[in-house]
Amino acid sequence: MEQQNSPYGRQPYGRQSYGQQSYDPSYEQPYGQQSYENSYDPNAYEQRSYEQRPGPRLDAGKLWAGGLMTAVIAALTAVVALLLVRGVLGVPVFAPEGAGLMGNATTGTLAAGSAVAALVATALLNLLIVATPRPERFFAWIVGLATAVMVLLPFTTGLTWQAKLGTAGVYLVIGIAIGSLLSSVARGAVRRY
Questions:
Q1: Is the distance from CB of 66 to CB of 177 less than 8 angstroms?
Q2: Would you give the distance in Å from CA 15 to the centre of its chain?
Q3: Is residue 164 within 8 Å of 139, Cβ to Cβ?
Q4: pLDDT, tens only, 8-42
Q5: Burial of 122 (0-12, 13-18, 19+ CB in 10 A)
Q6: Which residues have C-beta within 8 Å of that of residue 152, sequence separation ≥ 6?
Q7: Which of 2, 11, 20, 92 counts the highest number of beta carbons within 10 A?
Q8: From the CB of residue 186, how many other CB atoms can be counted at a distance below 10 Å?
Q9: How far is it, in rounded angstroms, from Cα 26 to Cα 44?
Q10: Entry pTM
């Protein structure tokens, strides 16, 4: 049989073996590289993608800007709720009846306290987002329970039933405003990838 010259060695004509390669020292792979068959790992992509996947990222600027706006809205909510309860319904809450629609200094104190409560809730939300899993659930529970405490607090005093209900209503509206606004602020301030 005739011999065929090839760059891979001399092989008989018609008897080329495609599955077996002759050894050629110039075709060696660089140090550290492996062939495809030896380097394939079906779990490598999943492990790499899991390890490189970033978690949720907090935009603290957006969170605190939303917290400041929530504080302003909470203060205005307190004033509007007092106008409704005292002016429209005629229930003397947070001030004697002769103090008028806006009441006395307690109206400003309630508005300022509502703003401070919103800022404290923002700080709590910031801490929960950074340190806990599922922070929105913890935040909803904490704000809900704090609002429940404030709503029930007037019923432990010796006020009239009208004043108790009016005060509880004001606290409830303020708590709902703070909780709902900060929950939506948190959704906008946390970027999930």
A1: no
A2: 69
A3: no
A4: 555 555 555 555 555 555 555 555 555 555 555 55
A5: buried
A6: 168
A7: 92
A8: 22
A9: 31
A10: 0.65
